[in-house]
Amino acid sequence: MIVLGLSGLPHSQPHHLRSRPGIAEVDSRICQGMDSAACLVVDGNIVAAAAEERFTGDKATGAFPEKAIAYCLDHAGITGDDVDLIAHGFNYDRFRRFFHRTPEYFDEVLSGRTVVEELARTGWRNPGDRFRPVDHHVAHAASAYHLSGYEDALSVVSDGMGETVALTVHRFTRGRMEELYSQGIDSSLGILYSILTRYLGYTFNSDEYKVMGLSAYGDPRRYAEFFARFMGADEGRAAIGWPQGALGRAGEGYPDALAFLEESLGVAPREPGAEVPDEYADIAAAFQARFSEVLTDLVRHWLRHTGQDSLCLSGGTFLNCLANQSISELPEVSRMFVPPAAGDDGTAMGAALHVAGGFSGTFSAYTGPGYGADDVRSALKAFERPGGGSPVWEYHGFTDEYMDLAARDLAEDRVVAWFAGRMEFGPRALGNRSILALPNGDDIKGRLNAIVKMREGFRPFAPAILDSDYEEVFEGRALSPSRYMLSTARTRPERIPRIRGAVHVDGTARVQIVTKEDNEVFWRLLHKVKEHTGLGCVINTSFNVKNQPIIASPDLALEALERMSLGRLYIEGFRVGLGG
C-alpha cells in the first residue's frame, strides 16, 4: 500500500494575514497549520519526506506542500494516481460542532476539504475518495511511537493545540493505541511558551528556541515565585493560572495575556529588535526553569501511573532541549525517543504511518533530496562567472583523502560547509546540510554568529561528537534524543576549554551523538577530525543564513558559499572555493 502523508493548513496563514492588514511580523504566525510537509510511505517503509520550506525558501511555511509532494513522488518514481491513500495530520471535520459560530472560517481554513481542493487544483484525480484525516495528536503520537522501534511505550504529546486539545497521553501495546488522558487548550504549555516568546519580543510560533538560548544568561530566582504560582502540574495535568479571558483575541497577538504578564512581572513587553536588558533574560530563565519542571512532573506522573519505562515524546513542546534533558534524567525512564521532526512537519510522517498501519523499516532522519556528482557538476557550470568569481573545485569522491582534506581545514580553524547525502527531515542539521567549525577555534562563536550566520550573539552552537567520545566530554545519559540534537547535556568542567565554542554559558551543550549506523559519512569525517585534533568533535550548525531554511540543493549551496564568509564547501565529493 502507498500512503502520502501531509501536514499543514494551506489557507490558515493567508486568512490570518488578510483579515488583519498591517499586522506586525512577530504576530504573523499566530495561526495553526504552519510547517507543511509531505511524506511517502510504501508498504510500511518511509521512502521520502521533506518540508515545503526547503523548496520554496519561505521558512516554516504552511503553504500547500506542492513541491514537497512532487519530490516524494519523483523520488519513488510514481505519480499521484499510484497513491492509495492520502493522510492528513488534522481532522477538524470531526469537531465542526465546536466552530458553529464561525462556519465560514471553518470552511475556508480548518476543513479537510481545503486540502482536497488543493490536491485537485494541482492535478490529482479523485483525491477526496482517498483522503484520510487523522487527529492531530494521534499523528504526533504515531510519529514518535512507530519510529522509536519500541513494542510497548508511553506516549506524551504536548503542543500549542491540536483540534481541541493541547496535551494527550497514550499507551501503546504491541502497536495498539489507548488514550489515557487529554486536556484542552486553556492550559496549553505550547501556547504559553509562544506567548512568553512574544512577550520577550520574538516571533510567536517561530522563535521559541531563542527563549531557550536566552534563558542561560538570566537569573531564574528573580521571577521564580511568580512562575511557581502561575504554572504547575497536578496529577498528570498542566495547570496555568491565566485570568478569565486572557487567551481571547488570539489573532491580535494575545493582548490580554501580554497585559497580564506585564502587570504580574512589572516589566513591559520587549519591543522586537530592541536591546535585551537583564530583566528579560531573568524572565526567560525563570520561565524555562519552571517549564522544564512542569513537563518533567507531568511525564513522571504518567510513567508511574502506567509502570512503563519506554517513553515517546512529540509535539512542538518537546523541541525544548533543556526540558528533554530533565525528563531523560528521570530514574523511571530506561529509554526515550523524540522524533527529529517533533513539530507539525512530523505529523505528515505520523499521519502516513498511522493510516499505513505501522512502520516496518529502519528509521533514518535523512529522507530528503539527495544529489550525485553530475548534479553538482551541472550546478558548478551554471555558477561560472565571466571575468572572475567562478567556483574553483576539485573532485575526490568520498575517499579518505577527501575526508582528510576537510578534517585538515577544520583543524586549521577554517569554517566549512558540508553537503552530503539526503537532506535531514526536521529543524536540525544533522551532518548532511551543515556548517562545521573547530569547537575551540579562535573566537569561533563570534565569527559564526556575526560573519556566517548573521544572528543574535546570545544563541549557542551545537557540538556533533563521535559516540565513542561522548562520555569523555559530557555527563548524562546518551539517550536517543541526543542523536538528533533534541537534548542538552552537561559538559565535564575540565573539558569545557576543549570545546568552548560549543558550550553555552550555563555549561550545557545541545549535543548530536554521531554513530556509524545513523550517518556513516559524517562519522568517517569526525574520525578524521580526531586524527588531527585528538577529539572527534565539531561545531555543527545548519547550512543556512538568518531567517532562511536549511539549504536543500547544490545550486543553493553555491549561492550560499558566495553570500557567506565560508572558507570551503565540501559537496558530494567536491572541494569547492571561489576564485578571484
TrEMBL record:
Residues 407-575 form the Carbamoyltransferase C-terminal domain. It comes from the Bacteria. CDD domains: ASKHA_NBD_TobZ_N. Residues 35-353 form the Carbamoyltransferase domain. InterPro entries: ATPase_NBD, Carbam_trans_C, Carbam_trans_C_sf, Carbtransf_dom, NodU/CmcH_Carbamoyltrnsfr. Belongs to the NodU/CmcH family. This is Carbamoyltransferase. It comes from Streptomonospora nanhaiensis.
